Amino acid sequence: MSASKNWIYHPFFAPILFAALGILPLANWLLLDTDTALWIADTVMDDDYLLVAIYSLTMVVLYVCRPRDNNLQQNISFWIFEFLTLVALFRELGFQHWLTTTDSTAFKIRFFLNPANPLSEKIRAGLILLAVFGCLAYLVIRYTRFVIRQFFKRNAVAWTVVTLCCITAIAKFVDRLPDNYRRFTDARLDLFWNVARTSFEEFYEAYIPLCIMIAAIQFARLKIRLEDA
User: Hey, which of 87, 119, 158, 160 would disulfide with 150, CB 3.0 to 4.6 Å?
Assistant: First the structure.
């Protein structure tokens, strides 16, 4: 079956798929009792072995779908995607907590501003953040025009990338929701809404590598050259 006739390569495939998958955290929140819902979200969806398996599979798919024309710029982008996927895995495993012995996490502004935290830990965390933000800046500068232009041409990869950005934004929003809610109201989320937040956060964070794999498969099958698009 040609790529143009395969539903996996349709531009609406990723948006429809992940909109439908939104039913899972919704069902986990509304249909299950509180203890079971929290167990599924916090234990099953956040299991280290599951995360390692999913992200390892993502890196394998990225490698299999890597550019084949030895174009330097495409190869640089490929290794950046691999690096960021690896960083995402370690972030999910909690390596931001491993980088500091004196604070809860090394990836917050308060960590760098706290004089009690060792300078060596600040340098180490700072270099990692610099590398990550440098890679993200490179991708944004290089491919934003492509994504915007190809989005309106109904390019499947562009639509999947936009879907990935939306999924990441949702996961980040619900992750920060308790702190932001407490900051503006001086109150904590009640248990009912905390179950909702936890469900959507953990499920949507698990959807991120799946969306990356779909984009990689579409990229390889459609033989897209981003620099020429």
Answer: 158
Q: For residues 41 and 203, is the Cβ–Cβ distance under 8 A? A: yes
Helices 191-221 and 13-21 pack at an angle, to 10 degrees, of 160
What φ, ψ does residue 69 adopt, rounded to 5°? -100, 5
Cβ atoms 145, 172 nearer than 8 A: no
Question: CA 42, CA 27: separation in Å to the nearest integer?
Answer: 15
Q: What is the pLDDT of residues 173-193, one digit of tens each?
A: 998 888 888 888 888 888 899
Rounded to whole angstroms, what are the CA distances from 197 to 25, 36, 87, 145, 204?
9, 15, 24, 33, 11
**Residue among 198, 155, 164 at smallest CA distance from 178:** 198
Residue 37 contacts residue 208 (beta carbons within 8 Å): no
Opening angle at CA 175, ends 173 and 180, nearest 5: 70
How many of the other CB atoms lie within 10 Å of CB of 17? 17
Positive or negative torsion for Cα 22, 25, 215, 9: negative
Residue 1's pLDDT band, with cuts at 50, 70 and 90, is very low
Q: Where is 24: in which H helix or E strand?
A: helix 23-30
